[in-house]
Request: fold
Amino acid sequence: MQDYFYSLAELIQSLLQGGEVFTCAFYGEDSDFVRFNHNRIRQAGHVAQQSLMLDLIAGRRHAAADLTLAGDLAVDRTRLAKLMEELRAIRADVPEDPFLYYATEVHSSERCYASHLPAGQAMAETILTAGQGRDLVGILASGAIHAGFANSLGQRNWYRRPSFNLDWSLYLRADKAVKARYAGFDWRDEELRTRMETAAAQLEVMAQPARRIPPGRYRAYLTPVALEEMLGLLSWDAFGLRAHRTGATPLLRMVEEGARLNPALSLRENTAEGVAPDFQAAGFIRPPQVALIENGIYRDCLVSPRSAAEYGVPANGAEAGEDPLSLDLAAGTIPGDEVLQRLDTGLYIGNLWYLNYSDRNAARITGMTRFATFWVEHGRIQAPVAVLRFDETLYHLLGDRLLGLTVEQELLLDPGSYGSRSSRSARLPGALVEGMSFTL
Amino acid sequence: MFSQIEQYFRELVPAVDFCSLRLVSERHESLTVRRDVVEPVQRSEDLGAMITVFDGGLGYAATPDLGRTGLQRAIQQAHDWARVTAGRGLVELTALEQEPRLGEYRSPVQQPWSSLPLADKLERLRRECARLKVDDAIIEWRAGLWHSGIETLYLTAAGGRIHQRFEMLLPSLSASAHRHGETQTRSFGRGAHYRQGGLEILKETGFYDAAPAIAQQALELLAAPNCPTGTLDLLLAPDQMILQIHESIGHPLELDRILGDERNYAGTSFVTPDMFGSYRYGSELLNVTFDPTHPEQIASYGYDDEGRAASRDYLIKEGILLRPLGGGISQMRSGLAGVANARGCGWNRPPIDRMANLNLEPGDATFQDLLSRVERGIYMETNCSWSIDDSRNKFQFGCEWARLIEHGALTTVVKNPNYRGISADFWRNLAGVGDRSTWQVLGVATCGKGEPNQAIRVGHAAPPCLFRQVAVFGGE
Reply:
């Protein structure tokens, strides 16, 4: 696929007309998807796709297009030539773009990983065997993801990473379930079986009658997966420069009024230790780290090339959406095996669900508990709880009511696949909170 | 090109129980003027096909390579997966739709997208964008148009052939006002004016009249008090009703959720199969239809992505739950009558049960009638926040803009309006439904669901509705 992409880049280069330059980004995947329900296969199949995002530039005028590629050079050659003519026609009708900005220093790179994945069919068989006698529901995605960049200056970047992501739940009845994930680059049957047994053991606790917890404020422990939901919501627009300059960030009070989160909280975009490519669609290389929040104080924004041009600050490798791809929340001091003891009495929240803002200016978030959430007394799990709605500002949750973060961090690979499989990841500890408000 | 692909498919069909090809071609163009600057015009072209094979089991393969070799490879991959699932499948599909259907569908278009030159479209957007910047406190403002042309061809080995062509347009406007550490945003329905058709949609939806009020209301919100906290009567505008319908009627009635397919991701449902035919979902004023018959509505179509003809059906009538949102396979699995709603978001995702057009039918009250029935309450417009549990019961929604209702009249503007409730109770407190004159055809551009994930457009039409005794609250 790398050779194919580079051939297309050469083709585009050959079709340039006087004074034109181009940038193009590539995405490709060859994926097996197997969907399970009741430990049977609901849907199974293969998806091959590749697309190219081309920006055709002349001076300060340009026009861009996404094109799904057939993967057949003769077909794609014709399509690209036609597309370039269309982009030239568009360019003639648009004004100069004051915020056009693309990489002009050449930084080529290549990051390819070998595949250690069995065939999707074999993985599906292992999953069904491990799930025998259980109500397993979920999705297996496996195969290679490819990304590339090329421009008319000769820069070439390539990324290929085979991976798998099994995201599943074991159900007991109704909404009583535990959720688990097994994701990575090197599939091991034994590891899957171990994780399945762990999930099954947790499910036994769910067999007890659910306790109904009345609305109120409770001490709570949020697992890394629960925290991932919270930071996932923030990722939409909390850290981008444009969101900051247009007042859209939910962290407005940190930016404009000096509000702080807990000093234990340090959050980075950690490209060096994430799994996303280290280059972006306009050809800029991402720095190894960008400090977003340091010791509870807001530091730097993620800056796309367009925002860099608009606001006159350096770009730092963000895509147009300026959202993080490799979030990393620094570890704390609470040993994982002491979490229940430190929680003492309160809620152990395994998963959160469907978060959104109830007051964006105040960074106030609402959402639901889901899956394995337990009531704990004196350091011992007592019973699962019926789902609860929380409504609380981050300035409490990750600010004055944060008691600490765990020593252990978990690397979580995003199972998301809207349009294409995600390369996002997050490395997060768990969080112990003094008071979390529940409303329904 | 479609005819060539059709010929290849007919030549390559293997000797299996069932084989289909679903070809999807999409062309999109996105135009935006932000802060009076034209953003890069963004085009996209997407073309590919999904092959589905049933041969003891069910398998699929999606490919953008539509040459003979590419299709042959995809058929082989789908067949391989069909063999793998044989005996391991969730349901033994013994009766997939075999009867060949022939059909055509086309969006009505009065003024084609191509009839107005690009420069003129951009000029119109510049004009509307500029009208949003009415004050220094307006910190962010934008106007946009997103046009899509989608063509699909569904073929079955048995001779089925369904060809559908859709044109759609999403106009957008928004303005954010900012002062003293606070930002308030007002928009043109937050993407709800999404319809099938051409440029005539801009006039029909009031796009050219909307900008001044949007900017003014964003400024008003900066100076407004917070929405009060309490249990009050709540009047919801159509552009909030669509979200209320979507989350607390649409998703819980999806049959694949009820059958458990979505339990790992989008969630389950408080609705169970035994409820259909008898369960009181809401008050007698509640009438909800699956309705593909409004040609301008965003998810109208002739046939779903498994080739079933779409027709109008009541899902809830006079408050009683009648029918789920379940396509052919879900109907087969459950034994329940459903609708034609098996939809894939593109060529690379298999069909699953989706909402299409899910409408709340009009009642008999004018807007003034609804107001007059409220002694003290809140009127809320335009969704900006949504959250609901995985059984689709405990919800909390927020709106951009609200006004108090006092003694039957709209009074003070209030900011950060939110309300929460439980689906099973909320709809039973439906106390007033706007008449046909208040009914608006709207839509949602991205409804997310499925594994692998799929985001799809759905239509909702609704009048304003009045609910009694709802927990409402504001910001900090």
Observations:
- Chain A has a mean pLDDT of 97.
